[in-house]
Amino acid sequence: MKKRIISAVTAVAMSLAAVPSVIPFSNVSAAEIMRDTFDSGTNEWTGRGSAKVTASSDSRYEGTGALFVSGREDSWNGATKELGSEFSQGNAYSFSVNVMCPTADKRNLFHLTLQYNGSDGEAHYDKIASGECFGGDWIQLYNTSYTIPSDATDMYIYVETEKGTSDFYIDDFTAADEGTVIDGSGDGGKITVGDISGDGIISSFDVIAARKGVINGFAEGRETFCADVDGNGEANVADLVLLSEYVLGKISEFPQAEPIAPPKSDFNYESALKYHAAPDYYLNPAGTQGKVITENYNGINGGNKLKVYLPAGYDESKKYNIFYLMHGGGENENTIFSDDVKLNNILDHMIENGELEPMIVVTPTFNACTAQTFYNEFRQSVVPFVEGKYSTYAEDTSAEGIRASRMHRAYGGFSMGGVSTWAVMQNCLDMVGYFMPLSGDHWSGNSAQDKANSIAGAIDKSGLSQREYFIFAATGTDDIAHQNISPQIAAMKPMTDYYTYTSDFSQGNLYFLEAPGLTHWWGYVRHYVYDGLPYFFHEG
Fold first, then answer.
1. Whether pTM exceeds 0.70
2. First-to-last CA distance in the chain?
3. Is residue 5's pLDDT more than 60?
């Protein structure tokens, strides 16, 4: 079992290879270029996006006040200020700001970012420094040697978060000559696994703190996180043993434990689910409606768009399962939430009536590549972009973070989108736990058995068990795709080393819903989503 990295604090991005001699900082030092304490106002900082900023004395790092940032509707919304002529292109500077999110027991990743216009006439965004803390702790974002890009004009500095829309405070923003060490809150809550006391050292004091926490309960979320040294999601006696062995020098790293198995789902599955169309009124707007947002991103295939459905009452402090649903040939990211398909209305009613847990649904497009190769953009561009911005079960968008949350991620698609679904399963099993190919087979090999074998090969390579991937496929018996997907499923069903055929996913992991007489049309396919999606995300 691979051992985990002990420190969970996000490293501050600093290029220190050529840092000049350190310049001590003082309030009257000639090295200082700009300093905003917010003790008597906003110091010309303004809200970015929907955010609003006010000077507040409710919380502060030092002095009598701080800048309070609220009303954020997106992660990039925050506090910003223009950098004037004191800052020159190609020169390096020292930057520091202290930040704090008041939301208790919540981990937050903050960025100090530079926005500027480049010589290409486009806006660019460059992270100066980053840091992670728990709610209630101040943390310093700092970099003693950040170089302003040589073509930068119209420069603005701002504070944002990696994801979410929580309110936050900033205090004591300082810019100085390169190499200046600026006093600040430092690592704040010191989110280091094993360092329960937060003093920056893992010692016998942490063993004592961990023992008290296991017996009496921990006072805050940071302590619980730091005491869970084996990373299985629970601080317990096993963690105490490992922590003691680490302090005594018997081990030099904390091993990664297997996550605690969740309790068995009590979801009421049917073992042989039949086709049922959603009630007609589900196509009309629900009383409580979610939101469909258009997003633009730059991916490996250039600029592209996708749609994001957020359920009613979306709360960035909560975690949501996520379903990526792909359109068919000749369609685009707008199709599924259009007035022709109206899947957003169906989702709203299902959630409102308790048939579906609130979840995020994303409709990307393969039109910048092909359905068969979209898995590359899905892996490298779409998932990091979407889940870096919206609240899912991914703690972060690293390969490890995405892999750890794969059982809370699904992918499906209609027609050529179904083709893309099988390609994602073959190439992205480490990222996705649930699959919904609709009226589309796997374009790999010439025969149904070839297609089945290619999927089995991917499963072999992944090392996953039958309880770690689930397939709900569907089509109509008069659908033009039936003659292709039906033989493929028939070839997969006897492969009992890989599949147990039933729609009761507490017992098996493969099912094929065949709707009598239905053809190749979203007007029918949207009801396959209505039937199958409630069966996702209960296992694993």
1. no
2. 19
3. no
